[in-house]
Structures are given as C-alpha cells and as structure tokens.
From TrEMBL:
InterPro entries named in the record: ALAD, ALAD_AS, Aldolase_TIM
Family listed: Belongs to the ALAD family.
GO MF annotations in UniProt: porphobilinogen synthase activity
Entry protein name: Delta-aminolevulinic acid dehydratase
Gene name, Swiss-Prot/TrEMBL: hemB
UniProt superkingdom: Bacteria
Keywords: Heme biosynthesis, Lyase, Porphyrin biosynthesis
C-alpha cells in the first residue's frame, strides 16, 4: 500500500528543471572534490595558546579543559619545541599567577621577571624559530579578575592603558614577537605602538583583540588562569555587546588607525559573521580565537560519544578559513598539526 504520485500533465524532467546544471557532478569522487576544494586548513594556520604556572616539572590538568595543562616554564619550553617540530608557526602564552602576587592594580604585570616574561625568555632561547605572542592584560594579575584598574567600581581606562603599554614594553624586551592586547581599553593600541617604538621595538607587531565580545564562552579559561570566583560583576563596560556587529567594525577600524598589524575576533565559531565582515571591510590579516568554552563543548560532547570529536574539530577550524581567517588560535593546535602531518 504505497502512494504513487500521478505525474501532473506537463511535468518537467530533472534536466528541464535544472537546465542540465548538476552540482553533484564535481562531488562524485574524492579526486574531483579535492580538485574543487576552495579552502584548506594547514599547519601554517595554527596558533597554540598555552597556560603557564610556577614551579618546575609541573603539568597541572585543568578540570574544564580535558587534555590541556598548566605548564611550568621548563615544560612550556618542551611543548614549544614539540610545536615547532610539528610546524606550528606561533604560540600564545597565558599565565596563572599565584594568588599572593595578585593585587588591586595588577602591579605584578610590571615585574620584568614575572611568569609570562620568564617563559618568553626561556622559550625564545631554546626555540628561537617559533613566534611568541604574549597576551597583555591585567586580569591574570588583579585580585578582582578585571582587565583594568578598578576604582570605586569603575574600570579606569587611561591609567590602565599606561600600565598595559609599560607591560607590553617588558614583554617585548623579554622577546615577544607579537603583543596581543586583550583588555579592550580605548586607545591601547596607539599607546602600545608609541611605547614599543620609543623603546626600540619597531619590529614587534601588535595583534589586536579588536573585537572581543562579552561572552560566557570564556568560562573554562578563568579556571585555567585562576580567576574564576574572583571576578566581581562582569566585563560589559569594556568588551563588546555580543548583540552588535557594526560596533565591531568601528572597533577594528579604530585599532587599525592606531597601528594594529593584525585583527582578532573572539570568541570564534559563534562570530563567523564578524570575521567575514572584517575581512571584507579591511583586507587585513584576520585571526579568530576558538576560546576555551568552544574547545570544551567539543571535548565534552565527544567524551560522551555524541559527536565524532576529531571530525568536528577539523570542521570547526575549516569553517574559520571559509569565513576569511588567516589563522586560528586553538587549544587543538598540536593534535590538528599531528593529523595534518598524517
Ligand atoms: C582576558 C582574556 C580572556 C581570555 C583570554 N584573555 C577572557 C576573559 O577571561 O574574560 C579567554 C580565552 C579563552 O576563553 O580561551 N584578558
């Protein structure tokens, strides 16, 4: 008892409907799919964010980020060596500062021997061929977890900018190749550029976290750097409202006018529309940060057997390329590099 559609009079054949255009023709075999593939992910697209902690020979697991560790400097050097061998062009470092070193103004960011600077020096000495991107922001260093100096409940912009610019000079002096300000204060890019130039670091580039959105996807990161539980309130007075897209264009335009060499969009996958807009608008080197929460969602679903984790990982990264990214900061970087190596 099966329904058969009576062909209406004058029914068109598929060839009549499509005008003989058949989009499946080029999908018919692996070789033809490869031939027409528009975007590719290569190891050259990867930036690997790593977490730093004190001590020696420490590899501390992070609960909410399976297979990601906080590394003491010696271990970070080992991992940088591994990354370089895999062909990963650059790493980005994020410090977990011990509670006793945090204060209201994040003053430890101005210690030339703090964790981030010590790690840069050690990695640069041992693995000079890998690029080092240092995040410059106060949040790992403040007792309240904000990216700025907090006074009477307000994140004060201009003083924060001064401190961030000074910290950037220290990071450059330690050997950072790219300074990546992630605090979203107004005027930080220009102030950092001026400070770097005045101190002989004309060749140090700036990757602006130009469009950093107020996002719940950063949750696991805060466990990783030990700011979860510290943060009072939220970051909505300095990060962009995630409802906005024109504002992201204005932010990027401003950062480029102030001297940013590269733009970053953060978080990543839920913001592909922003990536495409910035790439089309400015034609600048454009990066995305596949943040901790995005990583964790894939790992968690995979651990439950609900998705094929590695396939979803590769698909998510290729999506960034399709959206116009020149590269992606991703915690998956070493695994992806292994897979791409075959
Ligand atoms: C803040 C900073 C954040 C991340 C890196 N630097 C966001 C935040 O804590 O508010 C998030 C990275 C991630 O989630 O993977 N300067």
């Amino acid at each position: 008892n099966k329904f058969t559609l009576t062909k209406p009079a004058g029914a068109r054949s598929v060839d009549e409907i499509t005008g003989s255009r058949r989009l499946r023709r080029m999908r018919k075999a692996d070789w033809s799919r490869r031939l027409v593939q528009e975007n590719r992910l290569t190891v050259d697209d990867l930036i690997w964010p790593i977490f730093l902690t004190g001590g020696t020979n420490v590899r501390e697991p992070i609960d909410a980020m399976p297979d990601v560790f906080r590394l003491s400097v010696d271990q970070a050097v080992r991992e940088a060596e591994r990354a370089a061998k895999l062909g990963i062009p650059a790493i980005a470092t994020f410090p977990n500062i011990e509670a006793g070193r945090k204060d209201e103004t994040g003053s430890h960011i101005l210690d030339p021997d703090n964790l981030i600077n010590a790690a840069t020096r050690a990695i640069k000495a041992a693995v000079p061929q890998i690029g080092i991107i240092t995040d410059v922001a106060l949040d790992p260093f403040t007792s309240h977890g904000h990216d700025g100096i907090l006074r009477d409940g307000i994140i004060v912009n201009d003083e924060t900018v001064e401190q961030v610019a000074a910290a950037a000079v220290l990071q450059a002096a330690a050997g950072a190749d790219i300074i990546a300000p992630s605090d979203m204060m107004d005027g930080r890019i220009g102030a950092i550029r001026d400070a770097l130039d005045a101190n002989g670091f004309q060749d140090v580039a700036i990757m602006s976290y130009a469009t950093k959105f107020a996002s719940a996807f950063y949750g696991p990161y805060r466990e990783a750097i030990g700011t979860q539980g510290l943060l009072k309130g939220d970051k909505k007075t300095y990060y962009i409202d995630h409802a906005n897209s024109d504002e992201a264009v204005r932010e990027a335009e401003q950062d480029l006018a102030e001297g940013a060499d590269m733009l970053m969009v953060k978080p990543g996958l839920p913001y592909l529309d922003i990536i495409r807009r910035l790439k089309d608008e400015f034609a600048m080197p454009t990066f995305a940060y596949q943040v901790s929460g995005e990583y964790t969602m894939i790992k968690a679903a995979a651990a439950n057997g609900w998705i094929d984790g590695e396939k979803v990982m590769m698909e998510s990264l290729l999506a960034f390329k399709r959206a116009g990214c020149d590269g992606i900061l991703t915690y998956f970087a070493p695994r992806v590099a292994e897979i791409l190596k075959g």
